[in-house]
Amino acid sequence: MNARGCRYRETAKNTKLSIRYAIAAAWLCTLLAGCEDSEIGKVKAADLPGDRTQTYGSALSERGACKRVSWKTFKDERNRSAVEYRCELNDAVSELNKVRDAQIEDINGYLKAATENLSNAIDGAAGDAARYARLLDEKKAELQQIDEKIQAQTAGMDGPQALRAQQVLGDARAYAASQVQRYQAELDKANAGETAASLKGSLKRYQDQYANSIANLHRKYDGVKSVTEVIQWVVKDSDVFPVYFGFDIDSDLGKQRTDISAQFAAHLRQIVRNRGQAYVALVAPTVLAGVPATTDKVPAPTPVTGTNSGTAVAGQACYDAKLKEFRSAIGEEAPVSNDMMNEWRGQCGIAPA
Length: 353
What we know:
- The chain is of the alpha+beta class.
- 62% of the residues lie in helices and 16% in strands.
- Among the domains are: 107-219, Helix Hairpins, CATH 1.10.287; 312-348, no CATH class.
- It has 11 helices and 7 strands.
- A hairpin with a 2-residue loop joins strand 1 and strand 2 (51-55).
- It is elongated.
- This is Lipoprotein.
């Protein structure tokens, strides 16, 4: 056989060996969960909690909700083997802007109701002086009639008889006298313009509070650049334990993180059901929940600890007063936005909810 034929046979032999090695390597990779870190493979192969028809790998693959996806292994603070999955949410800024706009619309609705109610009350206060003057005259006349009746009934009576007659009309006289005092005080306030001034002050406070709430919403939402869903697991031998679920927010306010691990199971079900943009729209209202609309340079209100402390009691009393004033102006059934409640908590020195 010539040299050319030998080289041909050698090449064919090497090709067959390469194919065998490739097949063996592919089979081995399958056993090791795709030729990736074994911890990542174990996580992907693990069943979803409460759903043996899905694995983490199937649930988290090919999601239209994700612009970019990454997996990595690391050691946690307890030196345990851990895995992290990251999904940068697709078009998250647009969905967050919708949430912001809806909240601003709600706030403007509350402001409109407060303005209408307080404006009507201010207009009504202009006629309070005449109304209270009329009511005061009526109660004074009623009190005088009761006194005359008592005097007429007790005329010519001895001590015990007169005392019994006075007791019969005593309650009516006491009530009429209290009404005279009440309407006199209201008339004095109306003449001094205190009622209208107080109502105007309340209206100004509400307008300022709502303006602050809207400004805070813009600070919180307008600077968001990206939102990344983060899931972490701890891997021990063949067991996989989910330990964290939340969102990393990159914005003009800096790096922020929203931890919603307590809602992990519910969000995992939504991941399975909503593969595309519907998931981003679904989670958008929770992404910035609890994230303050301030930078780290601005100190947050000092959290109140200990329900028995004077500071805690004073802070709660301050918050209750603001809520009561809000209800009085708008109505007992009027909803209160989370941003408005957190604004009050900050003003009263209570930690945000």
